[in-house]
Predict the structure.
Amino acid sequence: MSNAISSLFAGFKKSPLGDLGGLGFKGLSSDKITKAVLLLSSFIILLVAGGMVYSLVEGAIPAFKEFGVGFIFSNNWNPTSGSENYGALPFIAGTIITSVLALLISFPLSFSASLFLGEYYRGTKMAKVLGMMVDLLAGIPSIVYGLWAFYVLRPFLISLGLPNQGFGVFTASIILAIMIIPYATSLSNEIIAMVPNELKEAAYSLGATKSEVIINVTIPSARSGIIAGYILSFGRALGETMAVTMIIGNSNVVPDGLFSTGNTMASVIANQFGEADGLKLSSLIAIGLLLFLLTGIINAIGKFIIKRWPKIIRFYFQNRI
Amino acid sequence: MTTVINKIDIDNLKSRTLKDSFYKGLVIVLSLVTISPIVLIIYELIAKGIKQISFDFILKTPPNSYEAMTALNAGEIIPGGIANGITGTLIMVIMASVFAIPIGVVAGIYLYENPGKFLANFTRNVSDILQGVPSIVLGLIAYIWVVKNITNGYSALAGSVSLAIMMLPMIVRSTEETLKMIPISIKEAALALGVPYYKVIIKILIPTGFSGLLTGILLGISRVLGETAPLMLTALGSTMINLDITKPTSAIPLLIWEFYNDPNMVGLIWSSSLLLMIMVLTLNIVSKQIAARTK
């Protein structure tokens, strides 16, 4: 429909009447200015994005010059001046391990909640309350999650016998899982709610039970959207900083087990940045660049799949995700 | 549907209903587990934070570590408050809004007005990528751009730039999506009357979609309000109220981080977090109310 409007404009501009008289001319020039302003704002966005990539690449060049591509695969992080050596592997590994674990932990919880909202109690007061509480999770600042993980979750896990004072990959994954619950839940809920009723009713009329309808009709027809929702949630988990920094233990090694301490790309930038300059700063910027690329790729995949669900895109952008 | 029929064992009604109840029970239990963290977190914040909240807490700056230790040893409530954080957060969020809202809204209008164009599609995709960039990377960017090249040191300006880049894509897309829901006939009527293009935007599009735009903006603000990581690399923090945007400035999340790292001040983290969360949640609820009213 907007196309109709643009073509209306095009017609207006090309029409010989458009140039006739003072009024037409005046309107035309202000239109041009308006269009230029609109275009300019779009250029500003492209400029910001281009500038970001440029600055990250430029800042990362010294590190890549010094260590080559080996920067990505080296697990040696040694800031001692004289024998400086930086490698990103421990942080890439830490980021991916914590995020994958977080996704695995949050899946049964968030998916159940989305079935609760979109199938079992759809439209009821109970669903409203549950949905509101899940939304509240999205409003909690990252640092508050970190405090809670440090003062409440960690002592609880220690009492269960977790080593390393409760710090480490496992604790970080739990808190990350809680942090992505609202995104995963609301996206899958919206997608589940969009499955046409006719499909489900057909299965019910054949005598299927609710769980059979969910397993055989709802989930298969919403599958791609649900997967995309979890990919986007995974993208969120990759970049979380504060809560993870406070709980992962900040040791610059590749985690060697579920309960080992580690570090993620975001958290190493946060806690090593203060004293960084020269090669170390460049290495941290290089890690930032890698993180930028990683989240960019994951999000692009998620958005590519979710394009099939246009309503979800609208929902996605009106709900702070 | 044939697959469904095949999968459903018609004869075994009893075990099927049993299975059905089992799944339902599982979903309910796991859903309750899902919402338990929010209950526990809010309980923790209120239980530990409420006793510290007072007018002093909003109006005064934090004590130094020694004062806090004395109060701690005497078993008293730690004196002082987080006034420097509140002012810093307000300054940075307001500046970020001033940067991000006009550009974001106008770019959103551009995307809406040029739906099929290559440049618009490209901008939309770039804006989506920007939205997924982790906040810590935006902190790095603002550090390179502003701290190193403009203010030559940590500053509120740098902090607000990082927050603005964070808000920008949210505002762009929420503007576009809001405008898409406005009936095209309203705009066509104005154009048919010969209303200039800019007046169509200012008098028709923006007022009609105002509540939607406001929702997007408020959600954007509520999202950056609690950001800590980018500010650590840009605004750094300050122990006093600072209104100079070229100097290091504190913010509520930054203060929480400082208190957390100082054993004497740890008593202040819960009350600061409680205040921060009340601010974020209020904005969230207000914007969702506006959204619900217009839907």
